[in-house]
Design brief:
By secondary structure, the chain is α+β, with helices and mostly antiparallel strands. Strands 10-11-43-44-35-40 form a six-stranded antiparallel sheet. Strands 1, 4, 7, 8 and 9 form a five-stranded mixed sheet that branches. Strand 36 and strand 37 form a beta hairpin.
Length: 994
């Protein structure tokens, strides 16, 4: 019997529909879950009832929780007539159930039960799971009865559905998890078996890469900077034109990367090792050597039965020997002593591919250099496998170390890693007022303000200079905090007694863990906090004082927002902070990091240029880092990663960096380049295998640093759900109900990036701050003459179509082509005589243009374009300005101040111009098949609109449109409309901007 329970706190309802004929209702709430039913008490004659009652359901099968539904029905209960009428319902899917610590009160709009039912209002619920054994389940109502039947007058008895009806209730709900598993099985994402294959399997030569272009005309860039489509042989077979041609063997789990052969050596422990020193002690370590490569474990002091539990992975591509030697040595100050060894012939090493069980380690007797058995045994396991092996992520890799020597103890700096970014919250501090302030000087009124601090974030209210000791501010202060909450909120009330001289009147320290969480815009109850004296005072005096100064605050953790920690153009996640508001995923994104070619040397080692590179990819809360390939300008990674996708209007970012920590901890990891891919531009189920140029802007100009070869696949679990997403607001509801200003968003984003960088920098291996900032485009808002010119060119390109129409109409007026002019005259007279044909003709033309453009739809993800970015012909002085420090270091103080102000203002203008261009480009993408799903919806709408407008009188359409545009504010909804939401999700050329 499971101890897991579902807790439901019924808080209250708001603005219910009157149903008793006297302008009121007597509301009661029924809860249905897992064949159990509970109900609240009846609130007589109240359209805004408050219950604050808690119920606990037994969860019969916790593994099936995500398939269950909680239904809350509100009825108007009429005791005298023994009847009730429907007021509304709320249905919550199991995917939104979260633990008690993550739960918040949410006010859900009431839903209709049928097409003709009428409801209004909201129901406040807090829903959570708990395994607290002290909480007992509520007693369910025993009497079975249909939910639409009459209620019994007894207060605590409630009808319940029959089992067959309950089964029907859950059967019609979409099982997204089951669909997800089915799709992945079909696509080869997570197969249940993997076929073994030969070690030296032969491969035919793949065809040469093909260059593909995104834009024609002036936007076309040099061939060397273009995207190249490839047809590599991956784990699932050869990829040709985005489709996988299956090979004879079954696809492996790693079907988006090339299979790499590794010799795995698992060093477990040793026993009965002989003493080597005069004192009888032994400091053993193990050295696994094959050819020029060797891996070394850490030494264990004074231990004849040591344990290491280390795995070495030697790349078969670099092997130059056929014998593996595993040596046990004794660590010494001058020269390490040889203890014994075990030899393996590679021709006799077994091959193991998951899901085969791991190879069991065995005891091997140590031999001396002559091959004779000596004292001591070593427990080992040796096998040949691929990167699909469970030991691969934590193994020491020979291709990630130098050929001369490397230690497994230092391999943390070069190991692959998956990071989870912290969950971020907005902290809202509403400073209302202070009471009974006691200034140090009794003969003056204080000039006070409140300073608030969380970690390194500091902000303050405006100064309040009034003839009172009870100043009032009513100001909102905003911060960003990350779970788990480590910093406290510190509030100090300070008095400005003179220029540059402030005195603290009191302080209060509030742990963030006690601050209330909310997921909507409900009012937070205010609290009074006692201000502590900043310095020690006489104890007797404190006893005499019966009062203390107080501070009136409203505090909350706003979970209804998405905390923006990256550029809004390249957001990888748009979900709110509160987990209860999360929707089920709509698909799965798979990334295979194959290899890089022609990398630019980033350092010098042994007199030659080289690089120690690794890749970082970020999407949502999940960051990944591949292993570092040392001393290689053509590294092969072949690592595959997976993300859940919740919104197609998001961007995957992949960056390549040079690891500067191998030579010492003081160097910064250098950026080599990055790639951005918008999910909505990917066709479902297609495998994209392209070689992306790594373009970086330097003070000397744009430079190609190499090419990164990726394999990408987006798999959709539910096409209907994904199409529905296009009609939803881009950001959570709170961004529209209580929006932030541009200044606030910029400040909060800067704080969020710093918090994410600090948390990821504490991992092992650390993801350094310069990496996080480069991946998050932290400096995208700063002024740049080059970006401003590029955005202006984008703007002109958007309006170029209007200019072309104007020129064409001028040519018509000038009769340059008489036949065309006559046809236009005929069309114009026909439309004047039959105005109802104007709109159908326009939409029909748009439909035909969209269908025509289907032939020329892009078949590859967008990539960075140096011509669109105005990077190729940028003036050296403009680049010098762009790479200048902020604040500038080029001029004296006065010029520096003006220069910084100019850059800041120009940065705003640059953003506005870019946003205008983005809107125009989204309009262009309606029919360009840049986003195949959006264009399919668009052309379908155009066809339907053409037909509807054809059969509907134009006067009716125009009249309805005018009435709708001028409708009363009461009939307006605060969230954006469906067409606006659809339009904001369309892709623009921001993905191609450097």
């Amino acid at each position: 019997m499971s101890n897991l329970k579902l807790g439901v706190d019924v808080v209250g309802a708001h603005n219910l529909l009157p149903k008793d004929g006297h302008g009121s209702s007597s509301a009661i709430v029924e809860l249905h879950f897992d064949n159990q039913k509970f109900r609240t008490t009846i609130k007589e004659k109240d359209l805004n009832p408050v219950w604050n009652e808690s119920f606990y359901f037994n969860i019969s099968d916790p593994s099936n929780l995500h398939n269950l539904t909680l239904d809350a029905y509100i009825y108007n209960d009429v005791k005298s007539a023994h009847s009730r009428s429907f007021l509304g319902k709320v249905s919550l899917h199991g995917t939104s159930f979260v633990p008690h610590s993550d739960s918040v009160v949410l006010h859900y709009p009431l839903e209709k039960r049928g097409v003709f039912s009428r409801v209004r209002g909201e129901l406040g619920l807090r829903v959570y799971t708990t395994d607290d054994p002290s909480i007992k389940s509520s007693t369910p109502i025993p009497a079975p009865e249909d939910i639409q039947s009459h209620a019994q007058p007894v207060q605590n008895s409630l009808p319940s559905k029959s089992k067959s009806e309950a089964r029907h209730t859950f059967h019609h709900l979409p099982n997204s998890n089951h669909q997800y598993q089915q799709h992945n099985s079909a696509a080869g994402v997570v197969p249940n078996h993997v076929t073994k294959y030969g070690v030296d399997e032969m491969k035919s030569e793949p065809p040469p890469p093909q260059i593909v272009r995104m834009y024609s005309g002036s936007s076309a860039q040099p061939v060397d900077y273009s995207l190249k489509e490839t047809s590599p042989f991956l784990g699932g077979g050869q990829v040709v034109g985005g489709r996988v041609i299956r090979s004879d063997r079954t696809a492996s789990t790693y079907d988006l990367v090339e299979r790499m052969q590794f010799l795995f050596v698992s060093v477990v422990k040793a026993r009965d090792l002989p003493a080597m020193d005069i004192t009888g002690s032994l400091d053993p370590y193990v050295e696994a050597r094959i050819g020029n490569y060797k891996g070394i474990t850490k030494h264990i002091e004074k231990q004849q039965n040591p344990a290491w539990n280390v795995v070495f992975a030697f790349s078969k591509e670099r092997m130059q020997a056929s014998v593996l030697e595993v040596r046990v040595k004794d660590k010494d100050l001058l020269k390490d002593d040889f203890v014994g060894l075990v030899r393996f012939d590679l021709n006799e090493v077994p091959t193991r591919v998951p899901p085969d069980s791991p190879l069991a380690p065995q005891w091997y007797r140590l031999e001396d250099k002559k091959g004779e058995k000596i004292k001591g045994e070593l427990m080992l396991a040796v096998w040949i496998g691929t990167q699909a092996d469970e030991a691969f992520p934590d193994a020491w890799h020979s291709d990630a170390a130098t050929a001369i020597d490397s230690s497994a103890a230092a391999s943390t700096l070069i190991r692959s890693k998956v990071y989870q970014a912290p969950r971020l919250w907005y902290v809202r501090v509403n400073v209302v007022e202070a009471q009974d302030l006691v200034p140090t000087e009794k003969n003056r009124f204080p000039d006070v303000y409140v300073k608030a601090q969380i970690g390194n974030q500091v902000t303050k209210t405006k100064n309040m200079h009034a003839r009172t000791f009870n100043p009032m501010w009513n100001e909102d202060l905003l911060f960003v905090a990350a779970e788990p909450f480590e910093d406290h909120l510190i509030l100090t009330v300070e008095d400005r007694v003179g220029p540059g001289k402030d005195e603290i009147l009191g302080r209060v320290i509030i742990p963030l863990s006690i601050v209330e969480k909310r997921a909507d815009d409900r009012t937070i109850h205010s609290r009074w906090f006692n201000l502590e004296k900043p310095v020690a005072v006489d104890v007797d005096q404190l006893k005499k004082d019966k009062f203390s100064s107080k501070l009136h605050l409203r505090l909350c953790l706003d979970g209804g927002y998405h905390v923006l920690d990256e550029s809004t153009h390249y957001s990888s996640d748009l979900r709110p902070t509160a987990k209860q508001l999360w929707k089920p995923p709509i698909g799965v994104l798979e990334l295979g990091v194959l290899n890089a070619v022609g990398l630019h040397p980033m350092k010098t080692r042994d007199g030659k240029g080289t690089s120690d590179t690794y890749c970082v990819a970020k999407y949502g809360h999940k960051w990944i880092r591949t292993r570092t390939i040392v001393d290689n300008l053509f590294p092969k990674y072949n690592e595959q990663y997976t993300w859940e996708v919740f919104d197609p209007a998001t961007v995957l970012t992949v960056g390549v960096f040079d690891n500067s920590q191998l030579g010492g901890p003081n160097g910064k990891d250098l950026k080599i380049g990055k790639v951005r891919i918008r999910i909505s531009t990917l066709e479902t189920g297609r495998v994209y295998t392209h070689s992306y140029p790594l373009l970086v802007l330097h003070p000397s100009g744009v430079k190609k640093m190499g090419e990164l070869h990726l394999a990408i696949r987006f798999s959709c679990t539910s096409l209907v759900n994904m199409m529905y997403i296009y009609s939803r607001p881009l950001l959570p509801k709170m961004h529209y109900v209580r929006p932030f200003t541009i200044m606030q968003l910029d400040m909060l984003r800067h704080q969020a990036v710093n918090i994410v960088a600090a948390r990821l920098g504490r991992a092992e291996p650390p993801l350094r701050k310069e990496v996080v900032e480069y991946m998050s485009d932290v400096d995208s808002h700063l002024w740049s003459m080059r970006r401003s010119k590029a955005n202006f060119s984008r703007l002109m390109s958007v309006f170029s179509g209007l200019f072309a129409i104007g020129k064409w109409f001028g040519d018509i007026c000038l009769w340059k082509n008489p036949i065309t002019t006559v046809l236009v005259h005929v069309l114009f007279i026909m439309l004047v005589c039959f105005p109802e044909l104007i709109l159908p003709t326009v939409f029909l033309y748009m439909f035909l243009i969209g269908i025509w453009n289907f032939r020329y739809r892009p078949k590859f993800p967008p990539h960075m374009n140096i011509k669109i970015s105005h990077a190729e012909g940028a003036h050296p002085d403009e680049l010098d300005e762009e790479f200048d420090t902020f604040p500038t270091s080029k001029s004296p103080d006065l010029v520096r101040m003006r220069y910084d102000r100019l850059r800041s203002v120009a940065g705003r203008i640059q953003t506005v111009v870019g946003d205008i261009a983005t809107q125009g480009e989204r309009l262009q993408s309606l029919l360009s098949w840049r986003d195949p799903r959006a264009t399919a919806l668009s052309v379908t709408f155009c066809l339907v609109a053409a037909i509807v407008l054809y059969v509907t009188p134009f006067q009716v359409v125009a009249g309805l449109a005018g009435i709708y545009a001028m409708r009363h504010p009461r009939f307006r909804y605060r969230l954006p409309s469906v067409p606006v939401n659809f339009f904001r999700r369309l892709p623009a050329r921001t993905d191609c901007m450097l």
